[in-house]
């Protein structure tokens, strides 16, 4: 987990919403592309990582090193309580931020400018600096407050990518569905990838 100042930088947040695998696969994809990823995981996010993937919060440094050590990019982990971290300042240049998955609590905080931890502060920085912010909400059903918060953020220029995987590309596993959603997030950031077969490409293969 080195700190290379020459790399393109991006912030990834993982909250306590179900679907922590989405965030992990996003980090891996960005590292494979050569990005320096600044990762923030909320306390609830660590609990869900433990429940869904068996990741121990008590051994967080080891867990992160084991899963991301072979990547070509570099990972910088920031504790959620470190409000003085680099990504809390607009003078620290990053290309974008993605919160994946994004809980309704975090989404509400961002929508209302509540910067009570590093993740929501980093998101607030994206808004005030006019930088791309992508949120991947994972909740169902949605009530009016959820929808109003998402509409408010969308009007501010935030990209909302609900955790809604598609089936037109013929997924064969849960991993295929995860890769599709990660790919859609990368599409919004104009980052090239080959995580899923696109609609036109699939039709071409069928005609050959």
Automatic annotation (TrEMBL):
Coiled-coil intervals: none
Enzyme Commission numbers on file: 2.5.1.129
One Pfam family named in its UniProt record: Flavoprotein
Enzyme class: transferase
Record-level Gene Ontology MF annotations: carboxy-lyase activity; flavin prenyltransferase activity
Domain Flavoprotein as annotated: residue spans: 9-189
Binding, FMN: 16-18, 42, 103-106, 138
Source organism, top-level taxon: Bacteria
Reaction catalysis annotation: dimethylallyl phosphate + FMNH2 = prenylated FMNH2 + phosphate
InterPro entries: Flavin_trans-like (IPR036551), Flavoprotein (IPR003382), UbiX-like (IPR004507)
Binding site for dimethylallyl phosphate: 168, 184
Keywords, alphabetical: Flavoprotein, FMN, Prenyltransferase, Transferase
Family that this chain belongs to: Belongs to the UbiX/PAD1 family.
Its biological purpose: Flavin prenyltransferase that catalyzes the synthesis of the prenylated FMN cofactor (prenyl-FMN) for 4-hydroxy-3-polyprenylbenzoic acid decarboxylase UbiD. The prenyltransferase is metal-independent and links a dimethylallyl moiety from dimethylallyl monophosphate (DMAP) to the flavin N5 and C6 atoms of FMN.
Name recorded for this polypeptide: Flavin prenyltransferase UbiX
Taxonomic placement: Bacteria, Bacillati, Bacillota, Bacilli, Bacillales
Gene expressing this chain: ubiX
């Amino acid at each position: 987990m080195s700190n290379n100042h020459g790399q393109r930088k991006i912030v990834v947040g993982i909250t306590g919403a179900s679907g922590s695998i989405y965030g992990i696969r996003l980090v891996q994809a960005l590292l494979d592309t050569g990005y320096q990823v600044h990762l923030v995981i909320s306390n609830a996010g660590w609990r869900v990582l433990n429940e869904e993937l068996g990741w121990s919060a008590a051994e967080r440094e080891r867990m992160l090193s084991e899963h991301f050590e072979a990547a070509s990019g570099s990972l910088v982990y920031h504790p959620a309580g470190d409000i003085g971290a680099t990504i809390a300042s607009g003078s620290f240049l990053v290309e974008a931020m993605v919160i994946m998955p994004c809980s309704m609590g975090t989404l509400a905080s961002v929508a209302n400018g509540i910067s009570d931890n590093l993740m929501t502060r980093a998101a607030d920085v994206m808004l005030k600096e006019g930088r791309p912010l992508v949120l991947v909400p994972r909740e169902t059903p949605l009530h009016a407050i959820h929808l109003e918060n998402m509409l408010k953020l969308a009007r501010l220029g935030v990209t909302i990518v609900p955790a809604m995987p598609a089936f037109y590309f013929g997924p064969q596993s849960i991993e295929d569905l995860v890769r599709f959603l990660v790919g859609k997030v990368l599409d919004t950031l104009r980052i090239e990838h080959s995580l899923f077969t696109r609609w036109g490409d699939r039709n071409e293969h069928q005609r050959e």
